[in-house]
Task: inverse folding
């Protein structure tokens, strides 16, 4: 969560801050102690003493600096200020997490309102029918005004209250990006000020409105916090799948496939909504039916979603009109059982999904599995390549992509033989040398005597280790395609790393495989 200088200024108000603030939106991702020895990061707030920032200053008063914004505090307790600022990040991070997870609850808008009880005054949420579906229940009848009493008695606004609200004076519209408006309602006794935040779905259709009321004009920090309320409300509006509305996770999935979103925040939100971890393996599968009508595809989608609720599905038409008659899915995969051999991917393939697709007369075209969703666009291209070449598995297409020097580097990296990453990780964990052995064996054109000589091992030892490698990593070294694919992958790794063999471990150190 990013905070703004305005929000932090309010948090440390007991230090009597004097501020010069130009920024209007939250841009601070964290805090650091200022040091001339390190280049400042524009996304961080730097904390230090006055003399740390200005060489000629002798003052020990604490300064907070972020880009062109400066806050001076009437205190010399640097550690206390730093701890207080850390508390702010923890508090607001928890607040945001509570709101973003609200969509999982029975009444998500009520959960959002409850999360705001220590930040704002009375809040209520009304749907498009002006029915009040959630409000701050810690304010009983008679504690706010007549409008509030109507909520308790009628579950909506009375006709008179609605008429008075419509006569309210428009004060300000916040950033158009967030569509939040401020009003002053002179007929609303005690709480005449209101901030109205629209709830919209992914199609920008209004689904409800949250209203915060106040006895005094809203402070600037509260306006900045309205951004996070808006995000949480829209997340709720997009979560439930209906006939004409997709979930926000599906929307993100479609954006990932088209590379419309490649930022860390979108990936983080997706993991949060799906309950996945970044190391979760997944693959993209393209389903096609030679004679399928659109109505048939709708039935297929409904059936697949029913039996595989953890899989994300979308139709090709949501990406492009020319792909109308197809279904695309993102399948989470489980790691293969420990000790299992003969699996080049180290994951359990979705056999149940393949079987169901067969019953529905759907052809499946599958990408390679990778950890995380950062490579979904590349995986989608792999699945589409399978369809265009008439191959069900990308393994049968990968060698051609890898050998195509006209392809972009990313496509070729994703086409590397999937066993390479597993082999190197195994070598690191078990202190073995299967990677080097297999590369040398293929470079020596399967001459076991020459390979053993170059590796300084006995020929029988080499034979034993080759057989073990085939079993461990699902390799078929008697298959010409497999051998050519492996050898080209070894060579491409060297090319991608500019021939620096020593950097292979760095290259493969983190998942996704071969994609540092």
Result:
């Amino acid at each position: 969560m990013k905070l703004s200088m305005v929000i932090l200024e309010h948090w440390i108000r007991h230090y009597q801050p004097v501020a010069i603030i130009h920024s209007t939106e939250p841009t601070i991702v964290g805090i650091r102690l200022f040091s001339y020895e390190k280049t400042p990061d524009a996304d961080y707030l730097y904390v230090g003493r006055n003399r740390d920032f200005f060489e000629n200053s002798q003052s020990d008063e604490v300064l907070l600096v972020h880009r062109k914004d400066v806050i001076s505090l009437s205190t010399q307790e640097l550690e206390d200020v730093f701890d207080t600022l850390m508390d702010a990040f923890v508090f607001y991070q928890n607040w945001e997490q509570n709101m973003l997870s609200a969509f999982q609850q029975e009444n998500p808008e009520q959960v959002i309102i409850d999360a705001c009880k220590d930040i704002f005054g009375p809040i209520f949420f009304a749907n498009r029918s002006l029915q009040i579906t959630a409000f701050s229940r810690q304010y009983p009848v008679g504690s706010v005004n007549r409008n509030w009493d109507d909520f308790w008695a009628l579950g909506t606004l009375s006709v008179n209250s609605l008429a008075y609200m419509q006569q309210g004076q428009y004060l300000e519209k916040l950033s158009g990006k967030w569509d939040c408006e401020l009003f002053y309602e002179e007929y609303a006794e005690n709480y005449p000020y209101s901030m109205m935040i629209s709830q919209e779905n992914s199609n920008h259709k209004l689904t409800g409105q949250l209203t915060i009321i106040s006895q005094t004009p809203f402070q600037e920090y509260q306006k900045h916090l309205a951004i996070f309320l808006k995000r949480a409300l829209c997340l709720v509006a997009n979560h439930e799948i209906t006939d004409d509305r997709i979930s926000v996770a599906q929307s993100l999935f479609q954006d990932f496939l088209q590379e419309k979103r490649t930022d860390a925040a979108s990936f983080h939100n997706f993991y949060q909504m799906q309950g996945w971890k970044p190391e979760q393996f997944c693959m993209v599968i393209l389903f096609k039916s030679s004679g399928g009508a659109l109505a048939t595809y709708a039935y297929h989608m409904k059936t697949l979603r029913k039996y595989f609720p953890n899989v994300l599905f979308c139709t090709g038409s949501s990406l492009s009109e020319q792909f109308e008659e197809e279904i695309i899915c993102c399948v989470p995969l489980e790691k293969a059982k420990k000790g299992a051999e003969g699996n080049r991917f180290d994951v359990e393939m979705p056999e149940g999904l393949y079987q169901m697709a067969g019953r529905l007369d759907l052809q499946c075209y599958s990408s390679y599995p990778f950890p995380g969703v950062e490579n979904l666009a590349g995986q989608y291209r792999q699945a589409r390549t399978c369809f265009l070449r008439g191959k069900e598995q990308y393994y049968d297409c990968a060698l051609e992509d890898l050998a195509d020097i006209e392809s972009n580097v990313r496509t070729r990296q994703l086409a590397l033989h999937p066993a390479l990453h597993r082999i190197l990780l195994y070598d690191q964990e078990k202190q073995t040398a299967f990677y080097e052995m297999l590369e040398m064996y293929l470079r020596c054109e399967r001459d076991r005597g020459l390979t053993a000589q170059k590796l300084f091992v006995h020929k029988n030892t080499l034979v034993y280790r080759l057989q073990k490698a085939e079993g461990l990593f699902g390799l078929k070294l008697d298959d010409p395609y497999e051998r050519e694919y492996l050898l080209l992958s070894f060579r491409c790794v060297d090319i991608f790393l500019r021939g620096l063999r020593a950097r292979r471990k760095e290259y493969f150190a983190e998942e996704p495989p071969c994609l540092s």
Q: What stands out?
A: The CA atoms of residues 417 and 486 lie 6 Å apart. Confidence is low (pLDDT under 50) at residues 240-246, 499-504, 509-516. The first strand starts at residue 18 and ends at 20.
